[in-house]
Amino acid sequence: MAGEDIFVPSSFLRTCLCLLVLAAVRAWGQTPATATVPNSKCAECHDVETNLKKSAHSGQACTSCHVKHEEYPHPEGVPKPACVNCHQLEVQNFWQSVHGGEIKKGNESAPNCDTCHGSTHDIVSTKTEEFKKGSPDTCGMCHDKQAAEYKTSVHGKAVERGVTAAPVCTDCHTSHSIMRPKNPESSVFANKVPETCGRCHGDVRLMSRFGIPADRITTFNSSFHGLALKSGSQTVADCASCHGYHGILPSSDPKSPTNPKNLAHTCGVCHPGAGSRFAISSIHSREGDKAPLPIQWVQLFYLLVIPGTLAFMAVHHLGDFLRKLTQLRFQGRNVPSRMLRPVVFTHRMYVLERIEHGLLSLSFIVLAYTGFALHYPDAWWARPLLSFEHTYPIRGVVHRTAGTILVLTAILHLLTIVFSRKLRTHWTEFLPRVSDIREMMEGLMWRLGMKSEKPYYSAHGYIEKIEYWALVWGTAVMALTGMVLWFNNWTLSAMPKVWMDVMRSIHYYEAVLATAAIVIWHMYTVIFDPDVYPMDPGWWTGHSPRPMSEGAYGSAHESKHAGD
User: Fold this and answer.
1) How would you label 26-39 residue by residue, b for 16+ Cβ within 10 Å and e otherwise?
2) Does 1.20.950.20 match the CATH number of domain 293-562?
3) pLDDT of residue 244
4) Pairing of strands 543-544, 346-347
5) For 281-301, b where at least 16 C-beta lie within 10 A, e where not — what string?
6) Cα separations in angstroms, 102 against 118, 163, 179, 459
7) DSSP assignment of 339-365, as one string?
8) Segment 48-78, tens digit of pLDDT
9) pTM of the predicted model, to two decimals?
10) How far apart are alpha carbons 413 and 409 in whole angstroms?
11) Taking residues 224-245, what's their average pLDDT?
């Protein structure tokens, strides 16, 4: 309205002022565009336009590289154009490579940009078939032996036929970041070879074009060699150790080191005597319907046994926990008759038995941890051990040491049974009896709520017997399969390789079953069972406060005094 002041917020004024200042600064910083001199003008004196039109720089103006040459005569002292002006990353990688390092040392024969790409005006695009096909010849100017081997390989022959998807030198060694094979940063360093080969052999679409199985990398990574390689081992075989480096041939070629007739010699480089009696089967670890028939049987067996066994254990102990929880917390008015009598501690373990139990527990825990760390080297919980693997194979050494302690403990247990009458008498309580079946059925019915009265159970009933004989079975199986895997040179020389694969499969699945059984069955029995929580001290003192049923009271009392 007329006569009234119009209020303008100060924030609006500040915003407008800032915009004006920014516009002025931008306009001040811009310089007038320099008129581009056409290449045809330069061609009046320099006969390079014809070559330039065919090169990778055909779209570039001469003045974009040759600065301060817009006028004639050209000013003196202007530096020649450098590749780094446009290709900074490539030049930076080059100076960090083995070629750049040689130039820094003063090696005048070391290649530079022009050596591989040609002169500035004749540079061929690296994306063309011509450049890729000529790559082996370019590298062969210095590496003639390697180039000659490459041309005889399956890759070299494919490139010669015009297969652009086939790898050349730069696909494996990279273009500008070429390192020596012993350099951990090199793409052909032992631990990185599967990743480098996997760029092609892990590409499902590319492999399907040539009828090559696309699981070569995954099956290698899950094999013994692959797992050891991923963990940092630099002495185990990688892809190139078996297939070769530059002269790679298909397995069907009689000259190929992976030809069935040559596998004994190829594997014998690391495993003397391998394949001397039986032909060596596939090196890659195969699963499912692609695995050898014996391995399929092992997998099917444990596919049924592991879930079934663990499900039984979980249901059994969950029912036990719920029944005891209900009685102790919600039905406290029903006082068991055992509470009216003095507490009777069952003598569970003698001194020597407790020593054996301690050795068994320690060795089992170490075996489980190191064993799964060997199988899953990428897991976060395996990293503490992997930090030492570059200098010392700590996982394998510790695992085998723990296995040796476990076997020696088993032998000590057998000797004590044979030579100690007291321990032998105590051990007979673990012998299976027909009554164990009745106790187990009644116990299951009570735990599942199908029976109201808590059943009778022996001082060493079916729960302890299942655990003991499962331990005996597991120890025997793990010791046998572990020995076969440990002394692999003897195994490969005396047995078909497929049986070593079978033993490895059994060793792994048995470890899964044993570890899960300890966690579910044993940990509940000695820790989480409400009758003994927070822990049954029998492993330390030899006596257990576990309550006995009415029928077992007398035998428990007698067992206590028999051990004194």
Assistant:
1) eeeeeeeeeeebeb
2) yes
3) 92
4) antiparallel
5) bebbbbeeeebbeebbebbee
6) 19, 33, 11, 79
7) GGS----EE---HHHHHHHHHHHHHHH
8) 777 777 788 877 888 778 877 777 777 787 7
9) 0.77
10) 6
11) 88
3 state SS of 543: strand
List CB contacts of 90: < 8 A, sequence separation 6 or more.
Answer: 83, 175, 176
Q: Return the percentage of the chain with pLDDT > 70, whole number.
A: 87
- Number of Cβ within 10 Å of residue 111's Cβ equals 19
Amino acid letter for position 376: Y
Q: Which of 144, 56, 146, 143 is nearest to 98 (CA)?
A: 143
Task: Provide the residue type at 552 as one letter.
Answer: A
Mean per-residue pLDDT, 469-484: 96
In the chain, where does the domain assigned CATH 1.20.950.20 lie?
A: 293-562
**Dist CA 193 CA 238 (whole Å):** 7
Structural contact between residues 206 and 200, judged by C-beta atoms closer than 8 angstroms: yes
Measured CA distances, 555 to 134, 135, 460, 559 (Å): 89, 86, 10, 6
The whole-angstrom separation of Cα 417 and Cα 322 is 38
Q: Show the beta-strand stretches assigned E in 314-441.
A: 346-347
Alpha helices in 174-222 (DSSP H): 193-201, 204-210, 216-221
Which residues partner with 544 through β-bridges? 346
Confidence of residue 150 (pLDDT cuts 50, 70, 90): very high
Which residues have C-beta within 8 Å of that of residue 328, sequence separation ≥ 6? 530
User: Is 124:131 a contact under the CB 8 Å cutoff?
Assistant: yes
Strand, helix or coil for residue 403: helix
C-alpha angle 219/223/229, rounded to 5°? 110
String of b and e for 371-410 (b: at least 16 CB within 10 Å)?
Answer: bbbbbebeeeebeebbeebeeebbbbebbbebbebbbebb
How far is C-alpha 160 from the chain's CA centre?
37
How many residues does the structure list for the chain? Answer: 564
